[in-house]
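Good day; I would like, with your permission, to put a structural problem before you. A protein sequence and the structure tokens that stand for its backbone fold form the material at issue. I would ask you to consider whether the tokens describe a fold that such a sequence might reasonably adopt. I set the record out below, with my sincere thanks for your time.
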Amino acid sequence: MLIGNFNLSEQETYIIAEMSANHNGSLQTALNTIKSAKECGANAIKLQTYTANTMTLDCRKNDFMIDGGTLWDGKSLYELYQEAYTPWEWHKELFDYARSIDIDIFSSPFDKTAVDFLEQFNPSAYKIASFEITDYEFIKYTASKMKPIIISTGIAYPQEIQDVVDICKEVGNHNIILLKCTSAYPASLTDANLNTIPNMAEKFGVVAGFSDHTIGSTAPIVAVTLGAKVIEKHFIIDKSIGGADAAFSMDAVEFKKMVEEIRATEKLLGNVDYSMDEKKQKNRRFCRSLYVSKDMKKDELFTQDNIRSVRPGYGLHPKYIEQIIGTKAKKDLNCGDRVEK
């Protein structure tokens, strides 16, 4: 599967820097964030495309107020989205700039109007946020644009995950990536349950990845060892600028270190390989083999007392010791001579 020019089947892990609200209302900060994400080694920068009006109602009834111990308790949904959204008039400049410095860019639309708006930029993919997974009509519409579709599964029941996979396939879009996600901000390590990643790939027949809201890089690194092909992490240039998502985002130093650790992890994982290369073959000289351990005369019998399995490995393989014991020496032998057939 291709996302832009990136081949998920052949290349390393696809790492997404999620800008979300971390532009903090500044276009220049948004541009600087894209530049920093590129410098940190991200494969892509991801935006969010919505307005407060496309997300919710401007209402302060109890249903629309945030509570429950979140970072945003006390605000209405409308107030949060009004603070956090990325102005639509910025998008062209952000897409153009990202492409000019060769970092992939796409967005999470949150309704059909956002999809229609984003289509003019020909994004390389669409991302469906966890809380939109129940909006089947919206997912069908987004999938119908035939871009790779990346879907976070944080609050979904298994049947809902199967439903949205089926919906994408029904419109002919088989380029589906499901992201294991814990929809808590921040999320605890004990709630990550990363063993779900390989199961998700097998159960739903898709590419699997990880959208991470934990603190630090441990979870995404472990996710890669479990087969995650896509990693998404909230990214901010510097947490000191604040903002709605700053508390659970990685700053530039942390993100760069995470990318380096993921790339090192990929090298460690390598491939399934039992081959005997030149280096391994050379090092076999340090393994054990059969050597004469006492001086012997011609026709003297080999016994446990006069041959041993020792290092180095130039003599006969130790597996032959039982065949050798009880046979006669063909010539005089000295301690340290190789046992040979």
